[in-house]
């Protein structure tokens, strides 16, 4: 893809589709447990799932594998910490889905992930 606008929109679409599946369909009970524990294996797996999906998305639109790998590792680190921060906040406040604080934290978490994708696309633009 040589047109940067088409490239960016196609990659954003793939990253958002990946995000939908990785965050809402493919999480295992291990990935969902102990969200406020820092070095939790389930969160490492979850962030790794996102990184692998992002690498596939980037390669599909023509990003060199080496660059996609570097960006995917950075996303792994960012995703891990965004989710850990939300987990810590949720445990600290004790909010549940019936409370506005839960939804504000959820919305911020999702926005941070989407902003990460914008940065990723910017980094790999041809």
Which key phrases capture this entry?
126 residues, mainly alpha, 79% helix
Topology:
Elements: H1 4-24, H2 29-32, H3 41-60, H4 65-93, H5 100-124
Helix pairs in contact: 1-3, 1-5, 3-4, 4-5
**Strand residue content:** under 5%
Radius of gyration: 15 Å
Q: Compute the number of strand runs.
A: 0
Give average pLDDT, whole number. Answer: 94
The SS-based structural class is: mainly alpha
Low-pLDDT residue spans? none
Helical fraction equals over 70%
SSE ordering: HHHHH
Q: Can you summarize the main beta sheet?
A: none
- Outline type: elongated
- Count helical runs: 5
What is the distance, rounded to the nearest whole angstrom, between the alpha carbons of the first and last residues?
8 Å
């Amino acid at each position: 893809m040589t047109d940067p606008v088409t490239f960016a929109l196609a990659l954003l679409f793939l990253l958002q589709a990946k995000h939908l599946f990785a965050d809402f369909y493919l999480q295992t009970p291990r990935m969902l447990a102990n969200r406020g524990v820092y070095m939790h294996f389930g969160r490492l797996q979850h962030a790794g799932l996102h990184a692998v999906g992002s690498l596939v998305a980037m390669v599909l639109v023509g990003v060199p594998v080496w660059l996609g790998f570097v960006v995917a590792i950075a996303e792994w680190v960012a995703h891990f910490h965004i989710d850990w921060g939300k987990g810590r906040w949720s445990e600290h406040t004790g909010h549940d889905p019936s409370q506005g604080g839960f939804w504000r934290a959820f919305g911020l978490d999702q926005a941070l992930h989407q902003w990460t994708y914008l940065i990723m696309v910017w980094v790999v633009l041809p």
